[in-house]
Amino acid sequence: MPESEEPQKLDFAPGELGPFDYSEHDFVELSEDAKKEVLELCRKKANTDLLARRIEVEQAWEEELFYRGYHFLFPRRGGGWQFTSQAAGNRNWSQRQSSGNYETNIFAPTTDILSNALSRDIPKPNFGPANPNEGPDITAADKAEDYVEIFEHNNDLSQKIAEMAYWFCVNGRFLTYTRTVVDGQQFGFYDEADDNPEVPETTGGQEPPAEIKTEGEQEIEYENESPEPESKRKPRGREVTTIIGKLAHKLPLNANTIHECDYVQYYLDSSTSQAKGMFPWIAQNIVPGAGSIGQIGIDRLARINVALAIEGGYQTGDTYNTDCTSTFTWLRPQAYFDCAKPEVKAELFEQCPDGLLCVYVGANDALAFVRNECMDDKLNVEQARRGTGMNRASLMRPGLSVQRRLNNWVDLLNDFFIKTVPRVWMDSRAFNVEALANQTNIPGQRGPFQAQPGIDSQNLMLEEPMPTNQPSLPEFVKYFAGEMMEQITGALPSLAGAETDTDTYRGQALQRDSSLQRLSGPWKAIKRACSIIYRQAVMATAQCREKLGEQTISQYIPGKGKVNLEVADLKGNILSYDDTDSTIPETWTEKSSKYQQLVSEAPENPYIAKLLSLPKNMKMAKDASGLQELDIPEADAEDKQIGEFEILLTTESQPNPDIAKAQEQLQKAEIQAQAEGPEAYVQFQQMKDQALQAIQALPPLVSSVAVMQDASEDHATEAQVCFEKMNSRAGRKLKRTNRPIWDNLHLHWQEHSQMAAKLSPPAPNKPPSPSMSMAVDKLPTELAAQAAAKFYGLDAKPQDFQVQDATETEQNIVEKSADFGHAASGAQ
């Protein structure tokens, strides 16, 4: 490059090189006094309760190290942990192992049992309008349910819930941070040829995303220039939630909920290059290291040690000295009162009425931006246990003492096994001890022995008595490793599917339910956290997507098909809440067992058989069996029909094309008949009325998705799927609010039902039943003989019935005569 030419300036849009937390609010331009006051205010808030924060960090650090298997910890001077072997001078890994300290880690598997039990399922939120009389609120609450599928798919909610459960086990608390993130490296870039065009400048008065000039146009500290990117690449955005443990966030420890916190801080450790990619407009001012806001020294060390899975006392120059910490600080408006200058208070209240978010990067506290932001729209804090204050015990905190004792006892037993081989003393006059030490000891080997006169051979060697351990020590080890740890943490064997002390299925279920009941509190907190995350994600979508240039969100969701959502429909005030049931969902194995039980009962229970035959329930057979290769035609037919809903629920019924086609053919036939002559035309007129009647019998409308008129489709299954859709919650609402669309769906159901009935084989004619009930003895003798032969297969003749009648008549006469005689004697 010629010396006269200046080097080209590297300028990038936020999110082009690294993830950027987007917002509907632009960067605010603060005065120099306000910048200094905000920095001092962040330091002042973060430096409160330093001793309590140190205790919180050391407790969380210890539990995370225990989970990784680092158990022999010794408090280090200045804070933190080091291994006992390090305190004794053994500084490397091999020396520590040779010292005989081996972890018998039951802390980690117990943690896994609890966390797996708490992450069995994804809680589903319930949305409602903040004002049930406001149309936008009602619409937003309804459309939020559709958005849930997109958000779950983009964030892998099952993994997020597993993270929540893990932090409950080893920290007892987590912080959630939900926002819109623009990241071209991860989500891609907008294309000029996209079907989803950019929003014009007239939309909301906002510029296209590539010209994000307002976000950061202020003059930042250290004479930073405004981020006015020359690049034309426009990064895409998505709603993202992050689950943060105790070591990476700080808040007032005397508060009970996030609503009582006037500040929250989040520490993000990354490489210096990543920090510069996230904040390219201040890249030249970012210095490796941590700033002066809220850092007490050991919290950053603890995060790095745990992340790198290294021993507690080690510091690596590569990470500790070259990485960079970004500090995100949220302040509520009431925190402005701590500012010393009245004019700064007024400026902050005017510029950031909802509270502010300020981000400082690196060791020199380089200010990235300040913007108006309410922490309740982005953050939430949940606790695993009841109590007061923010530093509450984790679920596994009681298990630390059990783990420590177990390690000591197991090491003691190990010493008895390998270090208590008895020592043998030998008479040096009778044995050459040095020569014996060089010989091999082979079983069955023979050698000479020189007896000593006057000395018993038994007295030539002396074996020291072998020490024995406490008789109860093995039992205590077994008890602490099993029942004690299970009872003290609640991680009973039934949670992991292990055998219990009962053989009956009901008894095992009762024990499992009893174990899960102890986790109902943490599970309730996880459900509450999920409902808040969903609401915050919906709000972020409504506020940011249009500013990014998106009017419609369209995404394919496996198992659901294509989901289309208008961003404007989410612009309402909504509420979210979890259900009141605190029961932890069942595992896949438990659900599969119940399904298999229903299958076994189906032959004797027609109602269960009917339920299992429904297309939606038939898909459960594939899931319950665990055989993904299992082919279920009804399940495929349901998927096909669900895919057709994308057209049926967006279009209306159409005129029947067969009517126009038949009318056209009739007109052609009439013209042809006229051309052939009067006789042909007379015959046509005789057939015309029948043809018109046939045309009138055709349905005037058909659904927007044609139904095959043969057996190439499973009409019965698809009709059932349409029936369920029409009668579902969404279908009932569609019938009230958009009747033409519902009519299209209803017509499609009718067409499938008619074809299913048409293609079904006719029921066989049932022959008349040969059985009948009649009084044969009342019939004439000839008819009685015929009936006995036809219906009962008896070889009877009319004479037989005549004889029977005569016999019965004679018997009746005798009985009547006897009755008359008894009556006469009584009268005398």
Describe, in plain words, how this protein is organized in 3D.
- The chain starts with 19 loop residues before the first strand and ends with a helix.
- Among the domains are: 318 residues, no CATH class; 127 residues, no CATH class; 44 residues.
- The chain is flat.
- It has 28 helices and 19 strands.
- The chain is α+β, with helices and mostly antiparallel strands and 828 residues long.
- 46% of the residues lie in helices and 11% in strands.
- The C terminus is likely disordered.
Secondary structure elements and pairings:
Elements: E1 20-22, H1 32-46, H2 50-68, E2 73-75, E3 81-83, H3 84-87, H4 93-98, H5 107-118, E4 126-129, H6 135-155, H7 157-170, E5 173-182, H8 184-187, E6 237-244, E7 249-250, E8 263-271, H9 272-278, H10 298-308, H11 317-320, E9 323-331, H12 342-351, E10 356-361, E11 366-372, E12 379-383, H13 399-419, E13 424-426, H14 433-437, E14 461-463, H15 473-489, H16 505-517, H17 520-544, E15 552-557, E16 561-566, E17 574-577, H18 588-601, H19 606-612, H20 615-625, H21 633-648, E18 654-655, H22 657-676, H23 678-697, E19 701-702, H24 715-727, H25 729-737, H26 739-759, H27 781-791, H28 798-827
Helix pairs in contact: 2-10, 5-7, 6-7, 6-17, 13-15, 18-20, 20-21, 21-24, 22-23, 24-25, 24-26, 25-26, 27-28
